[in-house]
């Protein structure tokens, strides 16, 4: 059974940076993609960024393009999310999730069904 554990959430000032990490334990051989999602209180979940298991394809929400970078370390079996120029609206609980489904396009990678989820890590951007 695949398990995902997030780390790296914290309180940071606007304009600051954080790096989130998702560690996967168990078999990842049947997976197509791993993604980062977030949910703020009173808001719908949002797909922030997703990466194919090979690392060849990535996609980002418009709200984070140019500020966030997703990467995969196959040796460590981790997927990291580097978040720069953080804004108060980035405040949310961030979840790592994995999917075995191949999406119809790279752009749809975050919109496919994700069956494996971590417990989440809190990111608060505030002065």
Topology order in helix (H) and strand (E) letters: EEEEEEEEEEE
| Share of β-strand residues | over 45%
Question: Could you give the distance between the termini?
Answer: 40 Å
Determine Rg (CA atoms, Å): 14 Å
Q: Helix content range of the residues, please?
A: under 10%
Number of strands: 11
Low-confidence parts: none
Structural class: mainly beta
Largest sheet: 7 strands, mixed
Number of helices: 0
Mean pLDDT: 95
* Bulk shape: globular
What does this structure look like?
The protein is mostly beta strands. The protein has no helices and 11 strands. Strands 2, 4, 5, 6, 9, 10 and 11 form a 7-stranded mixed sheet that branches. Strand 7 (about 70-75) and strand 8 (about 80-85) form a beta hairpin. The relative contact order is 0.31. The mean pLDDT is about 95.
């Amino acid at each position: 059974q695949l398990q995902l554990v997030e780390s790296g959430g914290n309180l940071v000032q606007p304009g600051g940076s954080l790096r989130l990490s998702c560690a996967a334990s168990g078999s990842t051989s049947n997976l197509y993609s791993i993604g980062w999602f977030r949910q703020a209180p009173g808001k719908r979940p949002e797909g922030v960024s997703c990466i194919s298991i090979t690392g060849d394809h990535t996609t980002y929400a418009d709200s984070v393009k140019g500020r966030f970078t997703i990467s995969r370390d196959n040796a460590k079996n981790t997927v990291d999310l580097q978040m720069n120029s953080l804004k108060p609206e980035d405040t949310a609980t961030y979840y790592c999730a994995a999917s075995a489904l191949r999406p119809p396009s790279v752009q749809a990678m975050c919109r496919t069904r994700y069956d494996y989820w971590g417990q989440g890590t809190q990111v608060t951007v505030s002065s």
